[in-house]
Amino acid sequence: MLFMKGTPAFPQCGFSATVVSILDHLGVEYGASNVLEDAELRQGIKEFSNWPTIPQLYVKGEFIGGCDIVKEMFQSGELQPFLTDKGVLPGA
Description:
Number of strands: 6
Mean pLDDT: 95
Strand order of the largest sheet: 4-1-5-6
Order of helices and strands: EEEHEHEEHH
Distance between the termini: 22 Å
CATH class: Alpha Beta
CATH superfamily: Glutaredoxin
Low-confidence stretches: none
């Protein structure tokens, strides 16, 4: 689940667009929630994760991180095997 600004088809910030691009590149099926439509959700997700920024990626209920962490995991080659291990990305 990706909590983001905008939607996957129309991200409203560069950080959200980056995470969407990475997930789409990997072929991950994911849900998304536009935090710009709900101020309580936007604040609540920040408090829940104790993470101050949006976007926020969760895999099977586990908070993974924001744009920088997702990008670093992708660039280091960690993200694809992680998602495969979690069962959200088919194995190669």
